[in-house]
Amino acid sequence: xxxxxxxxxxxxxxxxxxxxxxxxxxxxxxxxxxxxxxxxxxxxxxxxxxxxxxxxxxxxxxxxxxxxxxxxxxxxxxxxxxxxxxxxxxxxxxxxxxxxxxxxxxxxxxxxxxxxxxxxxxxxxxxxxxxxxxxxxxxxxxxxxxxxxxxxxxxxxxxxxxxxxxxxxxxxxxxxxxxxxxxxxxxxxxxxxxxxxxxxxxxxxxxxxxxxxxxxxxxxxxxxxxxxxxxxxxxxxxxxxxxxxxxxxxxxxxxxxxxxxxxxxxxxxxxxxxxxxxxxxxxxxxxxxxxxxxxxxxxxxxxxxxxxxxxxxxxxxxxxxxxxxxxxxxxxxxxxxxxxxxxxxxxxxxxxxxxxxxxxxxxxxxxxxxxxxxxxxxxxxxxxxxxxxxxxxxxxxxxxxxxxxxxxxxxxxxxxxxxxxxxxxxxxxxxxxxxxxxxxxxxxxxxxxxxxxxxxxxxxxxxxxxxxxxxxxxxxxxxxxxxxxxxxxxxxxxxxxxxx
Length: 500
What we know:
Largest sheet: 6 strands, mixed
Distance between the termini: 23 Å
Strand order of the largest sheet: 5-4-3-2-1-12
Strand content: 5-15%
Number of helices: 15
Number of domains: 2
Structural class: alpha/beta
C-alpha cells in the first residue's frame, strides 16, 4: 500500500505541472519516485507500476478530453469511459518503458538507460494512425524561458529527456545511497542546462522588425454549426474586424482555423468576399477553412487559405489529421468508436509541407493539433518558412485547461525553429510567440485585433537540421544499460545496493 500511495501521489504531482495550476517544478522530483519504485522490479511488475502511474498522470492533466466527449455525445457516462480508455491505452507505452527500466543497472548507465527508454516509448506515441502526444512533459516548461532555450538543439523530446535524466539521477542517489556522486553529476547537468539558457537569452537581441502581422480573434464559438442566416451577421462582424486590422497596414492579417465554413474556391461567394477583403486592406489574409478535394466522394480537406491583395490565392492542406476527431483509422473494424462521438466522415490529409508565399513572407501553416508534432513545424522551416502560423479551433474544449495546454506546444515550436509563431484561435488563446518562447498574448474571449512587428528568419537550428536525434541516442543508451545489467548478472555481480 505504501508503494501504491507513493506512485499515485507522484503521478498527481507530475500532472499538476501542467495548466491550470502549472506547477512546473513538480517535474523536477515527482517522476523520481516512479523510477525509484521501478528499480529491480520484474518486467511484469515494472509494466504495471508504470502503467498505473501514467494513467493517473494522464487523468490529472487531461480531464478536458471528457468535456469534448460529453460535447459530442451528451453522455456523462461515455465521457468518463472515453477519458479513462484514452488514458489507459496511452499508458501502455509507459508500461513498456517501465518493464525495461526495472531491468536497468543501479549505476550511471542505468540512469542514462532509464531516461532514454522512457523518452523512446513516449516518442513512439507520436507515430502511426493513432498518433497522440498530449501528456508530454516538456510543454509544462513553457513559462520558464531559461529552460526552453536548449530546444533549438535537442527539441522537445530532448527537453523531455533532460527532465527524466534528472529524475532518474535522483532515484539512483536514493536507491544506491550515492548522494555525493549524484551531487557532482547533477551540478554539471544544471550548469550546462541553465548556462545554455542564460547565454542564449543574453545574446538574443531582438532582430530588426521586418514584418507587421495582425491577429484577428473573432470570439466565435466554432464547436457548433450555423445556418446560413445565422452565419451572415457573424461574417459581417469578422469582416469588420479584418478591415479594422487593415487600418494598421500590416503585411499579414491572420485568422483562426476553419473560420470559413464553406469550402473554397467551390463556394464562389465566400471566396470572392475574402478576395475583396485582401484588396481593400492591401494585406495578405490567412484564414482557415475547407477545400473540396474530391467532389465525387464529397471529401474535404482542412485548409489554410492565403488571399493576396492582387487577387491571387494559395492554400495548404492539413497533413496530420486528428485521430477520431478528423479521421477514424480502421473505421470498419472499430464500429464501437461511434459511441464516443467520433467524426462521421473522414477528412482528406494533405500530401506535402510547403510554405505559403506572400511577398517576403514564407508562412509555414501549422493547423491546430499539428502544433503538438515537432516534425510539422520543423519540416516547414526546413522548406524555407520564415514565420509560423498556428491556426487553431479550441472551441471544442470550452474554457477548460486544454486551451492553455495546447498553447504550450506552440511555445516549443517557436524555440525549436527560432521562428516567430502567430497563433490564432477563435476565442482563445491567441498569441504572438517570439523565437525565445516569450509571448505577447491576446486577451481571450473577446473580439480583438492585435498587431505585432516580427522578424523573419530562415536560419536553420541544430534541431532543424537533425531532428529528434536525442531519441536515437536515448535508445542506444538504453541498450547499453540493459547490456551492462546482463554482464553484471552473468559475471556474478549483484546490481542491488548493499544492505545497510
